[in-house]
């Protein structure tokens, strides 16, 4: 999926993927991630997610990466955060109150920019990408890690792909395991039927939608 697609979605305010509140799974499962106290949390493809504020309020500096400057500007303005802006290699870096957002392409990130990362939160990154880019995403994420034993909280959805085209894309449990092994340990902590709570997806023709919550840890 080309970057122009996402720029257009933000320009047209077609951002149904944005959640107007803190993700309830983040509140529930973050304690099980066991991120080091004060450790930086990486939020790839972060948009203007309020989850970053919640993570910051738990004592974690946050590092997000987002393609759209509209999303980044909206995050700071809507949350009344004053920020400083600087150039950072292929990115524009925004910083305010323990939140650092890098505006640019995730695949341009370099390991020196993620050297302080101690945990990862992915609610809407993997499912935003088509299959070929998901492989690239996981491979690049692995290269960015500063070491082993980095924990991750991952949220995915699965549905009949014949009934709807993404994004968000369906990512099966088997695909998650194929993508992340052998470099990550993986535990599925929740499988939930969420279609009743997602009328917009029923309207698009889905007959089922299941959400999966994973706890992962890099091991190689």
Compile the SSE list and pairings:
Layout: H1 3-11, H2 24-33, E1 40-44, H3 51-57, E2 62-66, H4 69-78, E3 84-88, E4 91-96, E5 99-103, E6 117-122, H5 131-144, E7 151-158, H6 173-180, E8 184-193, H7 199-203, E9 210-218
Parallel strand pairs: 1-2, 1-6, 2-5, 6-7
Antiparallel strand pairs: 3-4, 4-5, 7-9, 8-9
CATH architecture: 3-Layer(aba) Sandwich
The CATH class turns out to be Alpha Beta
CA-based gyration radius: 17 Å
What number of structural domains do the residues give?
1
Distance between the first and last residues' Cα: 29 Å
| CATH homologous superfamily assignment | Vaccinia Virus protein VP39
Q: In what range is the share of β-strand residues?
A: 25-35%
Uncertain runs: none
User: Major beta sheet, specifics?
Assistant: 9 strands, mixed
Query: Looking across the biggest beta sheet, what order are the strands in?
Result: 3-4-5-2-1-6-7-9-8
Tally of alpha and pi helices:
7
Q: What average pLDDT do the residues reach? A: 92
């Amino acid at each position: 999926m080309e970057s122009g697609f996402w720029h257009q979605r933000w320009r047209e305010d077609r951002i149904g993927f944005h959640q107007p509140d803190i993700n309830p799974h983040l509140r529930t499962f973050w304690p099980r991630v066991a991120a080091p106290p004060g450790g930086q949390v990486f939020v790839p493809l972060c948009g203007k997610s309020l989850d970053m504020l919640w993570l910051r309020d738990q004592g974690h500096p946050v590092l997000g990466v987002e393609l759209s400057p509209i999303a980044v500007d909206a995050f700071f303005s809507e949350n009344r955060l004053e920020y400083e802006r600087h150039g950072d290699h292929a990115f524009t870096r925004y910083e305010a109150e323990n939140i650092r957002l890098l505006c640019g392409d995730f695949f341009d990130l370099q390991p020196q920019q993620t050297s302080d990362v101690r945990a990862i939160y992915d609610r809407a990154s993997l499912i935003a990408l088509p299959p070929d880019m998901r492989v690239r995403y996981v491979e690049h994420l692995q290269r960015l890690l500063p070491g082993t034993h980095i924990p991750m909280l991952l949220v995915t959805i699965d549905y009949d792909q014949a009934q709807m085209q993404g994004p968000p894309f369906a990512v099966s449990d088997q695909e998650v395991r194929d993508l992340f092994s052998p470099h990550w340990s993986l535990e599925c902590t929740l499988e939930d039927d969420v279609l009743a709570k997602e009328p917009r997806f029923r309207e698009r023709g889905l007959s089922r939608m299941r959400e999966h919550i994973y706890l992962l840890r890099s091991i190689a």
